[in-house]
């Protein structure tokens, strides 16, 4: 029996589904998970000693690739000075400064320990600041597992939120207004109906959790405009896009400045992290300056800050444009190879992300993404994995490429794709 299988069998007895986050169980691609022992650059090594080219990157944090020497050194040095103080430290000030310098919409920032914490608090802050309760969330956007975000559209009630999971009371999502992504007219309609009750819009400024779906032209600008018109706040959830779409995230790339920004993933260099920030007058409402409460034992943890600072220092000098061009060329070729097998497939790519959608239609909306052929993705995933290419264990996730991916990695992945049979 393979070591991964053996560990999975043990894990299933010890943890729900054998995992600490559901997607890792690989259920939708009908595989057992691989247990990873080591990562170096773009390569993951499993407990069985097999190597894989990684297109997941820990779901986004590892833009520099695994175990970048600067990041590893920073973590080691910081850990040697203790893993936790629960008191202010230099690293918090340095990382805060770097984030503020990079992000046009961030005058002040608060560190937390996950993206989920960041979005939950940003919503609380928007509600507290505006004195309003309702907020707009786009179907197919993911903002972590905070209760108000776990709403799905009930059939026939496109804008009526019902809890997407047991354990979330209906009352918790009754103020969640669901709107299709990239549909500015639907947003305007919500504001026409509920304008003076809407605290904020929260949006992935490029969606990465329903496959990669960039904003259509004018969408983000439209959100900014409508928020200004009705006195609502615009929250960009940049947990994926921050420091990935450009060093200054989606807001720098698209030139639309949100009132609040949520971050995670890359700013912790792989360590558990989140952050929210925004305009000074809004952030001043957070305790202890203001009366909107949020706290955390590990918020601003020194080792996490050290990993984040080291990561951003490398990224300051990284050639984002060159990586984007390489990823665009790779995705184009990968698409051509799959399409040549007579399969319906389209793709989206932006910066260092891409998604192959097993459908004939260009995907700009969640409904189109959901209509993709999941069985075909599962087959693609399994055959690529068997040849040493590690893809997301769900078709509706963006593939991630790092600065550590070389032309050789791309060529090997393309060769694997050529061998796939549908
Ligand atoms: N927001 C977005 C856009 C995400 O992609 C994620 C996680 O993937 C989150 C929030 C939640 O972050 P975390 O998993 O760190 O809680």
From TrEMBL:
CDD domains, A to Z: OAT_like
Main location: cytoplasm
Coiled coil (residue ranges): none
Modified residues (N6-(pyridoxal phosphate)lysine): 265
Cofactor(s) essential for the protein: pyridoxal 5'-phosphate
Pathway: Porphyrin-containing compound metabolism; protoporphyrin-IX biosynthesis; 5-aminolevulinate from L-glutamyl-tRNA(Glu): step 2/2
PROSITE patterns for the chain: AA_TRANSFER_CLASS_3
Enzyme class: isomerase
GO terms under biological process: protoporphyrinogen IX biosynthetic process
GO CC annotation: cytoplasm
InterPro entries cross-referenced by the UniProt entry: 4pyrrol_synth_GluAld_NH2Trfase, Aminotrans_3, Aminotrans_3_PPA_site, PyrdxlP-dep_Trfase, PyrdxlP-dep_Trfase_major, PyrdxlP-dep_Trfase_small
A Pfam family that the UniProt record links to this protein: Aminotran_3
One Gene Ontology term of the molecular function aspect: transaminase activity
Subcellular location: Cytoplasm
Keyword list, A-Z: Cytoplasm, Isomerase, Porphyrin biosynthesis, Pyridoxal phosphate
Name listed for the protein in its UniProt record: Glutamate-1-semialdehyde 2,1-aminomutase
Source taxonomy: Bacteria, Pseudomonadati, Thermodesulfobacteriota, Desulfovibrionia, Desulfovibrionales
Gene (UniProt): hemL
């Amino acid at each position: 029996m393979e070591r991964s299988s053996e560990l999975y069998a043990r894990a299933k007895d010890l943890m729900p589904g054998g995992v600490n986050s559901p997607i890792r169980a690989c259920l939708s691609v009908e595989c057992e998970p691989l247990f990873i022992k080591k990562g170096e650059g773009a390569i993951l090594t499993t407990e069985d000693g097999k190597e894989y080219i990684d297109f997941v990157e820990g779901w986004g944090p590892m833009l520099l690739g695994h175990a970048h020497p600067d990041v590893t050194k920073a973590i080691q040095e910081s850990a040697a000075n203790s893993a936790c103080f629960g008191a202010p430290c230099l690293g918090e000030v340095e990382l805060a400064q770097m984030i503020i310098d990079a992000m046009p919409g961030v005058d002040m920032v608060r560190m937390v320990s996950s993206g989920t914490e960041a979005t939950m608090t940003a919503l609380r802050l928007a509600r507290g600041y505006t004195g309003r309760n309702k907020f707009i969330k786009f179907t197919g956007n993911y903002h972590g597992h905070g209760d108000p975000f776990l709403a799905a559209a009930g059939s026939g009630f496109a804008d009526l939120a019902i809890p997407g999971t047991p354990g979330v009371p209906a009352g918790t999502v009754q103020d969640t207004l669901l709107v299709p992504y990239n549909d500015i007219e639907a947003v305007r309609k919500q504001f026409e109906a509920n304008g003076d009750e809407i605290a904020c819009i929260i949006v992935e400024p490029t969606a990465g959790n329903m496959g990669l779906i960039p904003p259509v032209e004018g969408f983000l600008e439209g959100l900014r405009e409508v928020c200004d018109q009705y006195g609502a706040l615009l929250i960009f959830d940049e947990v994926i896009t921050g420091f990935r779409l450009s060093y200054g995230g989606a807001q720098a790339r698209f030139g639309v400045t949100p009132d609040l920004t949520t971050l995670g993933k890359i700013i912790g260099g792989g360590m558990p992290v989140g952050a929210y920030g925004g305009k000074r007058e809004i952030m001043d409402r957070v305790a202890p300056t203001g009366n909107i409460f949020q706290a955390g034992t590990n918020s601003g943890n020194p080792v996490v800050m050290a990993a984040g600072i080291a990561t951003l220092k490398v990224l300051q000098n990284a050639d984002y444009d060159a990586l984007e061009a390489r990823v665009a060329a790779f995705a184009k070729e990968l698409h051509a190879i799959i399409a040549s097998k007579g399969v319906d497939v389209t793709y989206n790519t932006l910066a260092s992300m891409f998604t192959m959608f097993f459908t004939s239609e260009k995907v700009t909306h969640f409904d189109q993404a959901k209509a993709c052929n999941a069985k075909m993705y599962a087959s693609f995933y399994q055959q690529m994995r068997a040849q040493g290419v590690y893809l997301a264990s769900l078709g509706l996730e963006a593939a991630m490429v790092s600065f550590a991916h070389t032309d050789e990695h791309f060529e090997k992945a393309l060769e694997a794709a050529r061998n796939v049979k549908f």
